[in-house]
Every structure is written in C-alpha cells, then in structure tokens.
Write a structure and sequence with these properties.
Radius of gyration: 16 Å
Largest sheet: 6 strands, mixed
Structural class: alpha/beta
Shape: globular
Number of strands: 8
Order of helices and strands: EEHHEHEEHHEEHE
Number of helices: 6
Distance between the termini: 19 Å
Strand content: 15-25%
Length: 219
C-alpha cells in the first residue's frame, strides 16, 4: 500500500466549473497499486483487470470471472484496511464508497459488486463501521471513464458540488471519522475530491481516502 496527499489547492475541476476549487482541506490518502492505462485490463490478476471487471459495463463477464475479481479485491482490502486504521491512529472509522455515476436503478446487481465486496470485508474487520450505503446517487451524471469516447450517457460531468446535487448523504456521516473508498483515483477527474468535500460539508469529523488503483500517467 502507498500513501499520497490530495491537496486542496490542486483540486480544481476540469468539467462544468473549470478552475473552481473543491476541497477545503488537504486529505491524507492511500492506494494499493499504480494503475497503467493501456491493455493491462485484458490480463487477469492485474489491478487494471480487477477494476475493469468489477465495473462490468463494457464487456459482459461470466459469474465465475466476476467472482474471481471480487475475491482479488477482498484480499487486497483485508491487507490494506487494517494498515490504514493503524496509520490514522483511530479506534474506529466509518467506510463510505464513492457512488457510481448513475442512479442505482440503472445498474444490475452484478455492476455493484465493488461496493458489495467492500461492505462484506468491512463487516468482517474490527475497527470498521459499515457506511457503504451512506452516499446514494439519485440523479445521473456522466460516466467519466467512458465520456471521452462519447458513451458517458446522460447527466453532467463532475463539477464542484455535483455530489451534493446528485446524491443523498446519510446523517450517519455527521461527527464520524470517514474513509472514502473508490476503485480508481485520477487526479484530473476530481469526483473523489468533490465527494470528500460533500462528506466534510455534511459534518464528518475527519475524512480519509483510499483507492484500489491510482492512475499513473496523468500526473
């Protein structure tokens, strides 16, 4: 596992509100492995393949392949999450998940395995509270990883405030120490920064971030 810092003064958006600062504070962040864009997603066992498989929105994957990706993710989380808890110095931390781009009725259950796997692991580990359904998308946004090819769908690209505008945030967030998890962090997308700010605005006591992969070539 590796660490980095999401800097408030570098969290400007490149979507509808280019140049609008999002984060009100720096956020300590963690990730499992560098993500290399390219053809690695075709190789089973790579971090790129695991993330792509769990999205399950381009290539239709069989239940066996999907279960394999869930197992790989669970193994990663069981290693990394206890290390994050130790690094923060907290006794308890509530785990939230960055929601997918569209409201949930537009996804099949097998397209929500990332969150389901995170939930199962969190429920099995001491020191973690399940907040995986604390942020629920009620209005579509564009799917950022497909928008560049014209398949982003309905809605708007990330802009400062889009999480609060398009999601319901649980009151369980208030006063809690929160770890926000996403599959992939890409600096130029900024949806994770916006989601972190939404947690801060909702009243989280502290916020941390963790992603399975972190895009390497966009830095």
């Amino acid at each position: 596992m590796k660490r980095f810092t999401i800097l408030a003064n570098e969290s400007s958006f490149r979507g509808d509100s280019f140049g609008v600062k999002c984060l009100s504070r720096d956020v300590q962040a963690f990730y499992h492995e560098d993500y290399f864009p390219g053809n690695n997603w075709k190789t089973t066992g790579t971090i790129e393949n695991t993330i792509c498989t769990l999205k399950n929105d381009i290539t239709p994957y069989t239940p066996v392949i999907l279960q394999g990706a869930c197992n790989r993710l669970a193994q990663i989380l069981r290693i990394d999450l206890p290390q994050i808890l130790k690094a923060t110095g907290l006794a308890q931390i509530r785990v939230c998940v960055t929601p997918r781009a569209k409201k949930e009725v537009h996804y099949r259950p097998d397209q929500l395995y990332l969150r389901a796997t995170i939930q199962a692991v969190v429920q099995s580990l001491a020191g973690f509270n399940d907040g995986t359904h604390d942020i629920i998308r009620h209005t579509d946004t564009k799917t950022t990883h497909r928008a560049r090819w014209g398949y982003g769908g309905d809605g708007r690209m990330p802009y400062a405030g889009i999480t609060s505008d398009t999601c319901t945030l649980s009151d369980e967030i208030i006063g809690k120490d929160i770890l926000l998890i996403d599959d992939l962090y890409t600096k130029t997308v900024n949806i994770d920064e916006d989601c972190l700010q939404a947690l801060i605005d909702k009243g989280a006591r502290s916020v941390y971030f963790y992603s399975i992969g972190k895009t390497l070539s966009r830095y």
